[in-house]
Specification:
The protein is an alpha/beta fold and 209 residues long. It is built from six helices and 15 strands. The chain binds 1-O-pyrophosphono-5-O-phosphono-alpha-D-ribofuranose and uracil. The site of uracil (URA) has 9 residues, from helix 6.
Length: 209
């Protein structure tokens, strides 16, 4: 079963509570998602490999760590995953970006792909897939399987909220893909929405409802 990391940091939890509030404006919702993206990025990159390099400080030479290996790929699932992207790029500006366009069919709750664009050498890199919502997990699983078809082996998934049903499905479909989430909510409702959740993340980000 894939590992699940719940990020219980008070700053993340405080910002998430603001995001859940139905009275939070579109502008504030986007800003908070961006800020939480940065904080989650810090957690998901905690064990990245480093190598020792020589640097010259004003007081003389020293050997110190710097990130090693190929640049990361951030892979937001459109639309709502884009809300995390700028915050993550602020921390890792050299990362590459893969866009994965999926929407959830409201009747079947199956993910429908409409766009996919990834760096040519994506298979050789660590890919961090991001989407605020893990509800049925159909979208996350479809996105990750698409990357696996392209040969990607090293994948992590970051979300804001997960439903227990989606987590269980994800873990059995993708046992080698670890998950970082800010919270695990109670359940899904009859329409596949996370309860208590925060509503439709894409609509709240872009004011489309
Ligand atoms: C939302 C959300 C996830 C998906 C989660 O996207 O951003 O991608 O639903 O649900 P799932 O786990 O049941 O697949 P949506 O399909 O509403 O598209 P949007 O981001 O374009 O609004
Ligand atoms: N997608 C969302 O944006 N919110 C949910 O609660 C479930 C799927």
């Amino acid at each position: 079963m894939s590992q699940v990391h719940v990020v219980s940091h008070p700053l993340v939890q405080h910002k998430l509570t603001l995001m859940r509030d139905v009275a939070t404006s579109t502008k504030a919702f986007r800003q908070l998602l961006n800020e939480i993206g940065m904080l989650l990025c810090y957690e998901v990159t905690r064990d990245l490999p480093t190598e020792m390099v020589e640097v010259q400080t004003p007081l003389g030479p020293t050997r110190q760590p710097q990130l090693s290996g190929k640049k990361l790929v951030f892979a937001p699932i459109l639309r709502a995953g884009v809300g995390f992207l700028d915050g993550m790029l602020d921390l890792v500006p050299s990362a590459r970006v893969a866009h994965i366009g999926l929407y959830r069919d409201p009747k079947t709750l199956q993910a429908v792909e409409y766009y996919f664009k990834a760096p040519a050498d994506v298979a050789e890199r660590l890919v961090i897939v991001m989407d605020p919502m893990l509800a049925t997990a159909n979208s996350a699983i479809a996105a990750i399987e698409r990357l696996q078809e392209r040969g990607v082996k090293d994948i992590r998934f970051v979300c804001l909220l997960a439903a227990p049903e989606g987590l269980a499905k994800f873990q059995s479909a993708l046992p080698d893909v670890p998950i970082w989430t800010a919270a695990i909510d109670e359940c899904l409702n009859d329409h596949g929405y996370i309860v208590p959740g925060l509503g439709d993340a894409g609509d709240r980000m872009y004011g489309t409802r």
